[in-house]
Amino acid sequence: MSVKSEIMWRVATVYIVFLLLGLAVIGRVFYLQVFEKEEWMEKANTYALKTMNIPADRGSIYASDGRLLASSVPYYEIRFDAGCENLSDHTFYSKVDSLSLCLSRLFGDRSKEEYKRSLVKARQQGKRYHLVKSGVNYIQLKKLKTFPIFRLGKYKGGLVYMQENRRVRPHRNLAGRLIGYTSKDVNGNVVGIEGAYNDQLAGTQGIRLMQRLSGDVWMPVNERNEIEPKDGQDVITTLDVNLQDVAEKALLQQLISQGAQYGTAVLMEVKTGEIKAMVNLGKDDQGYYREMQNYAVGESTEPGSTFKLPVLMAALEDGIIELEDTVDTGNGTFRYYDKTVRDDYHEHGGYGRITVEEVFEKSSNVGMAKIITGAYKDKPGEFIDRLYAMRLNDKLGIDIKGEGKPEIRYPGDKLWSGISLAMISHGYEIRITPLHTLTFYNAIANNGKMVKPRFVKEIRYHGKLVKRFDAEVLQSSVCSRATLNKVKRMLEGVVESGTAKNLRDPQIKIAGKTGTNQIYNKKYGYKSNSEVSYQASFVGYFPAENPQYSCIVVVNSPSKNVYYGNMVAGPVFLEIARKVYATSTEMHPFVQRDKELPADLPYSKTGNRSELKTVLKELDVPVTGENIKAEWVSTEKKHEAVAFSKRSVIKGLVPNVVSMGARDAIYLLENAGLRVRLLGRGSVRRQSIAPGTAVRKGELITLEMSRI
């Protein structure tokens, strides 16, 4: 064979070998893809691994006194690895009846037979992650771990459980909108304190290695996590649960009685700006009131007469008016360009000529319009600049999301008109939130210092302080000291002799301002079907002489023909103020006892001389006859001391136990050999066997007690 032929033969041989190998590989691939596809897909699924995030335990939210407002409670999803290799058929089938009975008794949702059928079917199908029960609490989980089969654990008994946390509120919907929530949607909706402090509450996620089983079910590979989650921090709020409850009940009752659309009430601590209560109740489609929206924070509306305070302050600061100046309000109507401004009293002939102080106390719209238009008609920018300088056109910058933006028009703006000055003077053509209005009034109570409303006091982690939030000053002074003194006098006058006289209280002095305004609708204006809707409000502080708290109440659209601020919002304010006063001892005047009056001596029962002497000595109560040589003594309250006298106890005779306490009386009578029956409680008033009678062992004696 020539060299060329030999080379060609070898090449051909190699070619044929590789061709056959290639055909064999292709054939094998085809066989696997067609005939063994399901088997290999199942194996691939069995060994697929991935890491999954483990949510951390979310931090809790507490009231200022430590009471729980929101917390995460662990619940568990219980699974059964029916294909567990270390669980023998003998163990499973011999114990499945007992396990099914235990499960049925624990959860009460299915019969023993139903549980057994489910478990046996899972065993026969070799399910690796069979769902037994979801939403199991920790107590149930502990019991479940003691059940037959499951007590063997994960690798021998097939018990698999996954923890999930649910957010719960012990006080249910109390302050629900302020406490808030975070949603899991794409936009990441955040509400209230839950949303504002989500980064602190959420903690850090952990990582767990998961194995995919058939049916796209994932099961943890190990009991231990790859990376352990870190718990979230706890938020300590400024809320007072008791005051929140009082405010909610007072507002709810008024909303129901007035058939209103919604209402809000906010209580703030003057010095610190801490929000002690915030209630937001709106009527749902079924006519029930619940926390649906944070009206105090997010609802910017025309405030009405409560805005007359900063308006008059602007004129006082510019030296345009004094409280003693007079204004002719005439018959209660004032025509300004094409707008007629009216007082509520115009149907009765108006107030006539009254002082500036009376304009505010009587809430005269005509008086306000005449003062402001007369002073600023040719320089409206100066007036608006004054309002801006009081920080009334800037957001408060609170942590809670969704704060409504205040709107105070400026001359030259698109919607500014010739009547804007007159309208702004009594609270129209502007928009401001109830919380912003309260913050301004709180500044007056705080001697001019405006502090930011504060909802959170501290951040803690497992009880240790992480961060403390102090009062934040927004403006050191909203006006001069002279103006401050004047407006305080006016605010007190509103309650003493003005529109809020019905809120006068002998125990606590209130200062504040009523507000009653028509509600503007973009579609219908101020009237819909010839009807006008109103908003009633009252805002102020107490006690007026030394302000500790400020409060605002707003009721929207009362429908029972009563819509004035003093009658609708005022009573809610007063009830809140009374409750705060009753529970705050620092507000009560110190009562000094007249030193010349003798101390009122305590009442004391007849009893053992030594014990009585010890107690009275500890209380610094003077005693006469303390040296009497007797074990038992009677007591009598004299003018300056408690007098002891001998009480004889003779063996064999029934002792005199009248005026003794139950313990001493039973001791003496049972030692004498008698059986004792008590009627009532307190000290002995009458005994059924007369003192000095011969004792008959075992005889029953009945003691009537005086309840003292």
Give me the secondary-structure topology.
Blueprint: H1 3-35, H2 37-46, E1 49-54, E2 61-62, E3 68-80, H3 89-107, H4 112-125, E4 130-136, H5 138-144, H6 154-157, E5 159-168, H7 176-179, E6 181-182, E7 190-191, H8 192-196, H9 198-202, E8 206-213, E9 217-220, E10 234-237, H10 241-258, E11 262-269, E12 275-283, E13 289-290, H11 295-298, H12 308-317, E14 326-328, E15 333-336, E16 339-342, E17 353-355, H13 356-361, H14 365-376, H15 380-389, E18 407-408, H16 420-425, E19 430-431, H17 434-445, E20 450-451, E21 456-461, E22 464-468, E23 473-475, H18 481-497, E24 511-518, E25 534-542, E26 549-556, H19 565-568, H20 570-583, E27 607-608, H21 609-618, E28 623-624, E29 632-637, E30 642-646, H22 662-671, E31 675-679, E32 684-687, E33 700-705
Parallel strand pairs: 2-10, 28-30, 31-33
Antiparallel strand pairs: 1-8, 2-3, 3-4, 3-5, 6-7, 8-9, 10-21, 11-12, 11-26, 12-13, 14-17, 15-16, 18-19, 20-23, 21-22, 24-25, 25-26, 27-29, 29-30, 32-33
Helix pairs in contact: 3-4, 10-20, 12-14
